């Protein structure tokens, strides 16, 4: 890494130590958010690692800004959107696969499947609002939309989740 003007080797090491401590502290919570955003732990780890690599050169500025967790969450959402856009393009292969890819234990969870069935924007709102426990204002900032959009997307998503989860086994539990 190049040192700029006035950046000593000691302060650079201190910044690296701060960054390493941040990564260690945030890995678990941010990995859970990423997993819910992409639906697969392995792709979530890739997304989080890519975001952390991109964050490293910006670490001094971001850490002085006051909320590196929010910055990283925004990077995860943006990274997810970018991957979604790239994946949407058709990929030609010589022959179709003979069976689907490997499944993970999380994919068998009913709520997890219901989350995956939501449109990407609604899923992002539900994950950030209810799982990451962000306020509506923070979710709006993370997604780059208005608070009203967050409220309407959240309402529609919860309605869809309730409809998907309303099976005979679940209806008796709500009475």
The average pLDDT score comes to 80
Per CATH, what is the topology of the largest domain? Rna Polymerase Sigma Factor, Chain: A
Helix run count? 9
- Rg measurement, Å: 19 Å
Q: Bin the helical content.
A: over 70%
**What form results from the Cα inertia axes?**
globular
Run of helices and strands: HHHHHHHHH
Characterize the largest beta sheet: strand count, sense, and whether it forms a barrel. none
CATH uppermost class of the largest domain: Mainly Alpha
Structural class: mainly alpha
The CATH architecture of the largest domain can be named as: Orthogonal Bundle
* Amino-to-carboxy terminus distance: 61 Å
Report the sheet-strand fraction: under 5%
Number of DSSP-assigned strands: 0
Poorly predicted segments: 102-108, 170-175
Total number of domains: 2
Keywords: DNA-binding, DNA-directed RNA polymerase, Sigma factor, Transcription, Transcription regulation
InterPro entries: RNA_pol_sigma-70-like, RNA_pol_sigma-70_dom, RNA_pol_sigma-E_actinobac, RNA_pol_sigma70_r2, RNA_pol_sigma70_r4_t2, RNA_pol_sigma_r2, RNA_pol_sigma_r3/r4-like, WH-like_DNA-bd_sf
Domain RNA polymerase sigma factor 70 region 4 type: 109-161
GO molecular function, one term: DNA binding
């Amino acid at each position: 890494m190049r040192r700029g003007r006035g950046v000593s080797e000691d302060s650079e090491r201190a910044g690296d130590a701060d960054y390493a401590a941040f990564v260690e502290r945030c890995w678990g919570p941010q990995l859970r958010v990423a997993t819910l955003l992409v639906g697969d732990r392995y792709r979530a780890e890739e997304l989080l690692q890519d975001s952390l690599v991109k964050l490293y050169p910006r670490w001094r500025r971001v850490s002085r800004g006051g909320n590196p967790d929010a910055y990283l969450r925004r990077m995860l959402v943006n990274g997810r959107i970018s991957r979604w856009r790239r994946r949407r393009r058709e990929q030609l292969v010589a022959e179709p696969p003979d069976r689907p890819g490997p499944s993970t234990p999380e994919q068998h969870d009913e709520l997890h499947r219901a989350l995956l069935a939501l449109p990407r924007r609604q899923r992002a709102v539900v994950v950030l609002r209810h799982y990451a426990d962000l306020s509506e204002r923070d979710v709006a900032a993370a997604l780059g939309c208005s608070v009203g959009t967050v409220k309407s997307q959240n309402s529609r998503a919860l309605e869809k989740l309730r409809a998907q989860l309303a099976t005979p086994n679940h209806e008796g539990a709500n009475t």
